[in-house]
Design brief:
Elements: E1 23-24, E2 30-31, H1 50-62
Antiparallel strand pairs: 1-2
């Protein structure tokens, strides 16, 4: 294996599990922390949509 091998493979434990998550302020503003999980960075390639993030937050609130 090369010293420059791709190390982006899936690991059994998610590396992003302890990063800040998006949340809604009491006024309804969606906050997506810059230091948070890149999954929520809608402005970057591969980031999920704001709509999907809001759906996740709604599902979490209902459970």
């Amino acid at each position: 294996m090369s010293a420059h091998a791709d190390k982006t493979g899936d690991s059994p434990t998610p590396l992003n599990q302890n990063l800040p998550k998006p949340y809604l302020k009491p006024c309804g503003t969606l906050v997506i922390p810059m230091a948070g999980d890149p999954k929520y960075h809608y402005w970057k390639q591969g980031g999920q949509s704001v709509y999907k993030t809001l759906e996740e937050l709604q599902e979490k609130a209902e459970s």
